[in-house]
Design a protein that fits this description.
- It contains 11 helices and 9 strands.
- It has a 7-stranded mixed beta sheet, sandwiched between helices. Strands 1-2 form a two-stranded antiparallel ribbon.
- Helix 2 packs antiparallel against helix 4 and helix 10 packs across helix 11.
- The longest helix has 14 residues.
- The chain is elongated and about 70 Å long.
- A hairpin with a 5-residue loop joins strand 8 and strand 9.
- It is of the alpha/beta class and about 290 residues long.
- The chain has 2 domains: about 60 residues; about 190 residues, Vaccinia Virus protein VP39 (Rossmann fold).
């Protein structure tokens, strides 16, 4: 099955949808339309109007469809990932931000309502989705971001520089010692997949960088534990820590924070799909540390 030269846009998108469906792409029609719009740059509303007429398919469309059918991530083909109100530059070497992470950003925004000029750090920022969203949506916020991978750091720099985020290339376990005890919020979406849990989706296991997926150790909990330890170091007393994790890890994360003996008000939060997606806690005041 292939897209024949000279087809109308409508016929080509219909054919592309069938090709992508046969390849197992989860959202074939949406992806077929987004690939067409990537070439035409008219917006999806206008594109769908053009599908009602005899507009010709854009040159190069068949090649993009074939690339997506090979399970190259859509965002690598278009170079763009959409996250909350941001349009992020992405590509090989950086983790593609997921929609469920948007709810983690919302937890921070809700917590900071009424707080003037909060100081926030995102540990393991990847493309900069969390840090960038907070810089854009929290008035007066001073936002910092840390990324270990040089490739991901380059993408984050492109996305975060216009938003005024302070980005550093560094390890979330040791970064920003000069700012210990100064942050109102530490947020993190660290790698957390166990070593033997290979993702099923080709877009993930073939294209997302392994260092953004696997959390270290058999259970994948080395980096999440390190993120919590760094959060305790970076936060001011009473500061807020929130971390994304897999839904099956919620109990483990809450127990780990409790064992650290530095946290109170430990709470698990559901994402929009009703899955236990994040855990938050407040740093206990130093004189009451266990």
């Amino acid at each position: 099955m292939s897209i024949a030269p000279g087809q109308t846009l409508a016929a080509a998108v219909t054919e592309a949808t069938a090709i992508l469906a046969d390849a197992g792409v989860p959202s074939p029609r949406v992806d077929a339309e987004l690939l067409a719009d990537h070439l035409l740059k008219v917006g999806l509303g206008r594109l769908r109007a053009l599908l009602l007429g005899d507009t010709p398919a854009p040159e190069g469309y068949a090649a993009l469809v074939a690339e997506r059918a090979a399970r190259t991530p859509l965002q690598h083909i278009t170079g763009v990932a959409y996250f909350r109100y941001l349009e992020l530059a992405v590509g090989p070497g950086v983790f593609i931000p997921r929609p469920e992470t948007e709810s983690v950003v919302q937890l921070v925004i809700d917590h900071l309502k009424g707080v003037s000029q909060p100081k926030i750090v995102d540990l393991g920022t990847g493309s900069g989705a969390i840090a960038g969203s907070l810089a854009a949506e929290v008035p007066g916020a001073e936002v910092h971001a840390v990324e270990f991978s040089a490739f991901a750091h380059a993408w984050a720099a492109k996305n975060l520089q216009p938003l005024g985020v302070h980005l550093v290339l560094g390890d979330l376990r040791t970064a920003l010692p000069e700012l210990n005890g100064t942050f109102d919020v530490v947020v993190s979406n660290p790698p957390y997949i166990p070593a033997d849990a290979v993702p099923h989706e080709p877009e993930v296991f073939l294209h997302d960088p392994p260092e953004a997926l696997y959390g270290g150790g058999a259970d994948g909990m080395e980096l999440p534990t390190a993120a919590a330890t760094s959060a305790a170091r970076l936060l001011r007393p009473g500061g807020y820590f929130v971390m994304e994790h897999a839904e099956v890890q919620a109990g483990w994360i809450a127990a780990m924070l409790d064992r650290q003996g530095m946290w109170r008000s430990i709470e698990t939060h559901l994402d929009l799909n009703g899955k236990e997606r994040a855990t938050s806690a407040l740093l206990e005041h130093p004189h009451t540390l266990k």
